[in-house]
């Protein structure tokens, strides 16, 4: 890994400048008669490199910025945005938002989040670790990772590419309640995708490492070797017969199951009555030993924040406790539509922690005995309205607790409400590259469509 040299840090000056612009935008809104207004400003910078077989394909430096503004005239709402932070452009954007609001229909649920819910403890959570990585150094990291993967096994003769990225973002949210909150964060990653085999027998697989701080990344050679192991393991897949089998989802696949649950308890789906978990607060949705907790204030958490996208203070809170759904995920608009209160989830959910009742993947394979280990999912086959679930899958066939051969071109299917309750084990092998902290998940039985 390249020496971890900190970048020069102008983030606080940038946040102060954005805060000043936010105040000016809100003053312009008030001067035009808006009863309420809110504005979000951001500045993002990044460096990304992509190469293949050691040859550089792209080097890209990005500098993006933007302003998103919403004004309210009573219960009428107008929104506008711009990427130009010059005074004239900001004034024109305010004019556009106000003009839109004057022609919209009143909506009783519109308006800012309640003033008493605004965050007052605006802490940081160790999300800022800039990296002074120049293009040559980033290229060298990607080349090291790719070279290690290509050298790991003679069956790997080709690469689908390697990439390295470093970036940072500062943002400010402010509204006419007098709330102003500033945030800053960094993001770094390194990835490799390799190809093994020849002709029709070729297989592709990848690995990546990511983190908020450069020291959280795996070494380039380790990334390449892991990509190589995963790629070679997929060679020579064999079919399995269609049937119902235990299915073990690897951690990076298991978090998609949590994503389907979150989608079904999100405010937008609920007030539109488009969720299979409508009216399920207080009812079992997962096994009785399973809990799901939101932890917005974790140090160096990938989604840590003192406030949500509306300025509402975030708090540690159960989403599911002992299998029972405790609450929905609501911003102020969806909460009002449902006659409830915001849960501080405008803009999405924060860090999630799940219950583990098993060790790592090896133990869970032994516990499963015979069945399917899923390491890749394809398609978007989850219906939040009905709970119907059907996705393309590939992975490995397991017998007597041991992986025996790879499998692909499968379809797994069921109903999410049944799948969630059929979870038998969750491993402690948590994939830390996501804000959803969950390990491998064993589902007792799912339909697997393979060979006729």
UniProtKB/TrEMBL annotation:
Gene3D superfamilies: PmbA/TldD superfamily. Residues 242-450 form the Metalloprotease TldD/E C-terminal domain. GO terms for biological process: proteolysis. It comes from the Bacteria. Keywords: Hydrolase, Metalloprotease, Protease. One of its GO terms (molecular function) is metallopeptidase activity. One of its GO terms (cellular component) is cytosol. InterPro entries: Metalloprtase-TldD/E_C, Metalloprtase-TldD/E_cen_dom, Metalloprtase-TldD/E_N, PmbA, TldD/PmbA_N, TldD/PmbA_sf. This is Metalloprotease PmbA. The gene is pmbA.
């Amino acid at each position: 890994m390249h020496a971890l040299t900190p970048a020069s840090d102008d983030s606080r000056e940038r946040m102060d400048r954005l805060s000043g612009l936010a105040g000016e935008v809100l003053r312009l809104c008030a001067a035009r008669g808006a009863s309420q207004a809110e504005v979000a400003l951001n500045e993002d910078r990044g460096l990304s490199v992509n190469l293949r077989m050691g040859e550089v394909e792209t080097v890209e430096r990005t500098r993006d910025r933007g302003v998103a503004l919403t004004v309210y005239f009573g219960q009428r709402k107008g929104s506008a945005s711009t990427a130009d932070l010059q005074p004239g452009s900001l004034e024109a954007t305010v004019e556009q938002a106000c003009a839109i609001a004057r022609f919209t229909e009143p909506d009783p649920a519109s308006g800012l989040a309640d003033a008493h819910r605004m965050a007052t403890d605006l802490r940081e959570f160790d999300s800022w670790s800039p990296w002074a990585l120049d293009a040559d150094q980033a290229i060298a990291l990607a080349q090291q990772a790719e070279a290690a993967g290509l050298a790991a096994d003679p069956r790997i003769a080709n690469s689908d590419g390697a990439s390295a990225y470093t970036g940072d973002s500062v943002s400010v949210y402010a509204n006419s309640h007098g709330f102003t909150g500033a945030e800053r964060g960094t993001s770094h990653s390194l990835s490799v995708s390799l190809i093994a085999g020849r002709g029709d027998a070729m297989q592709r697989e990848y690995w990546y490492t990511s983190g908020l701080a450069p020291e959280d990344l795996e070494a380039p050679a380790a990334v390449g070797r892991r990509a190589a192991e995963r790629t070679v393991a997929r060679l020579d897949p064999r079919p399995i017969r269609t049937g119902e089998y235990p299915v073990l989802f690897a951690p990076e696949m298991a978090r998609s199951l949590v994503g389907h649950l979150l989608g079904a308890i999100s405010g937008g789906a609920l007030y539109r009555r488009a969720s299979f978990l409508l009216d399920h607060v207080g009812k079992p949705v997962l096994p009785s030993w399973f809990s799901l907790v939101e932890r917005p204030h974790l140090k160096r958490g990938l989604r840590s924040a003192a406030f949500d996208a509306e300025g509402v203070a975030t708090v540690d809170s159960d989403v599911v406790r002992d299998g029972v759904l405790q609450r929905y995920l609501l911003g102020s608009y969806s909460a009002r539509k449902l006659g409830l209160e915001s849960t501080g989830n405008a803009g999405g959910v924060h860090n999630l922690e799940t219950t583990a009742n098993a060790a790592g993947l090896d133990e869970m394979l032994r516990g499963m005995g015979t069945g399917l280990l899923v390491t890749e999912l394809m398609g978007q086959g989850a219906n939040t309205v009905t709970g119907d679930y059907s996705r393309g899958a590939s992975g490995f066939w397991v017998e007597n607790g041991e992986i025996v051969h790879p499998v692909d071109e499968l379809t797994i299917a069921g109903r999410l409400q049944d799948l969630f309750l059929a979870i038998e084990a969750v491993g402690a092998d948590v994939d830390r590259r996501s804000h959803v902290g969950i390990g491998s998940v064993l589902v007792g039985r799912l339909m697997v469509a393979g060979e006729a």
